[in-house]
């Protein structure tokens, strides 16, 4: 017989888990501080050219210089809005198309090679065409972000739907359930981890797609700020925008992760 789990054993496990979590968090913070400290030291001692590579203090000064009038927050807000719109559309389109492909195998057999080809296509090659089709506006940026993420989402979700446990599907059919019941009670619940995984990937891909779109078709946003800063040799703006993007990407990923944990608690 296995050893019984006593309250003391459980308390020790929780204590070790919390200690490990604090240890990981501490090292994450220390590494973050060390990177910026070494960067600042290298810039001040001349190991790197501060004009080209900037430095943490120069980035902070650049951020402060853009705060009057809220210019920096305006650029951040536009990028976040475009990312959120594209993320929601990718989520809805990905699920809808994956369900259609699962529902009708003939459609999936017909469209599969096209989806694979479109997913493999470098999306940056389409950006100039999108500008001609849609104009130099937010629609082009959002569509660019959608194209970067949606085909991979469809392929991954459909693959998960198609490999759902056949015994569970057979059980639903034996009990008189219809295809809709199989979808809502077996296929989607069983593939929830795949769906969450796709969301975590897509939030980053949508941000990347938005930045690519802003490089080519924007008058505002962090991508526009990077291009403009490089053109006028304000490289502090470029590095500041890159740092902000890193922070934004981490926060967006964390939001999806927290949403997943909140949902799992309701189950």
Question: What would you note in describing this structure?
Answer:
With 267 residues, this protein is mainly α. 84% of the residues lie in helices and 0% in strands. The protein has helices spanning 7-45, 50-53, 56-65, 71-103, 105-120, 127-134, 138-162, 166-174, 179-190, 192-216, 222-231, 235-266. The longest helix is centred in the N-terminal third of the chain and has 39 residues, at 7-45. The chain is flat and about 75 Å long.
Based on the model shown, name its key terms.
single chain; 267 residues; mainly alpha; flat
Topology:
Elements: H1 7-45, H2 50-53, H3 56-65, H4 71-103, H5 105-120, H6 127-134, H7 138-162, H8 166-174, H9 179-190, H10 192-216, H11 222-231, H12 235-266
Helix pairs in contact: 3-12, 4-5, 4-7, 4-10, 4-11, 5-7, 6-7, 7-10, 8-9, 10-11, 10-12, 11-12
Say what oligomer this is.
single chain
How many helices? The count is 12
Gross geometry: flat
Average the pLDDT over all residues and give the rounded result: 87
The proportion of residues forming helix, as a percent range, comes to over 70%
Short description:
This protein has 267 residues and is mainly α. It is 84% helix and 0% strand. It has helices spanning 7-45, 50-53, 56-65, 71-103, 105-120, 127-134, 138-162, 166-174, 179-190, 192-216, 222-231, 235-266.
